[in-house]
Amino acid sequence: VPKVYKKKHLNFLINGKEIKVMTYVMTNTYKYGKPSQKYYDVIKKGYMDWNFNKNKLIELILNHPKVMQR
After folding, report:
1. Residue 38 per-residue DSSP state
2. Helical residues (DSSP H) of 1-70, grouped into ranges
3. Cβ(20)–Cβ(26) under 8 Å?
4. H/E element, 25
5. Is the Cβ–Cβ distance between 23 and 5 less than 8 Å?
6. Rounded to an integer, what distance in angstroms lies between the CA atom of residue 6 and that of residue 44?
7. Rg for the chain (alpha carbons), in Å?
8. Taking a C-beta distance cutoff of 8 angstroms, is the pair 22, 9 a contact?
9. Spatial separation of the C-alpha atoms in residues 10 and 41, rounded to whole Å
10. pTM for the full model?
11. What Cα–Cα distance (Å) separates residue 54 from each residue in 28, 32, 61?
């Protein structure tokens, strides 16, 4: 089974406090491209669930040279 993502642990200093986070990073196995509508909707829901700025997600999509606009 190909592994598209690898788990990565990071430390950030936020307001003077060290925060440990875990994220997934895309491997070099696949090329970047337009996400499916289903995948985009999952990402967008995560942004909304965690009160992230949805405009940043839209900005990333609109400004990425290899991703078509939604």
Report:
1. H
2. 37-49, 54-63
3. no
4. strand 17-26
5. no
6. 21
7. 14
8. yes
9. 26
10. 0.54
11. 27, 21, 11
Cα 6 from chain centre = 13
Which amino acid, 51?
N
50 token code pair: 């965690």
**Structure tokens of 53?**
């700025």
pLDDT digits (tens, 9 = 90+) for 7-65: 999 999 999 999 999 998 888 877 767 778 898 899 889 999 999 988 888 888 777 76
β-partners of residue 20 are: 11
Sequence letter at residue 61: I
Residues contacting 56, CB < 8 A, separation 6+ = 47
Q: For the beta carbon of residue 52, count every other beta carbon within 10 angstroms.
A: 13
Can you read off the two tokens belonging to residue 4? Answer: 């598209």
Give the Cα separation of 47 and 30 in Å (integer).
24
Tokens matching residue 55: 């405009």
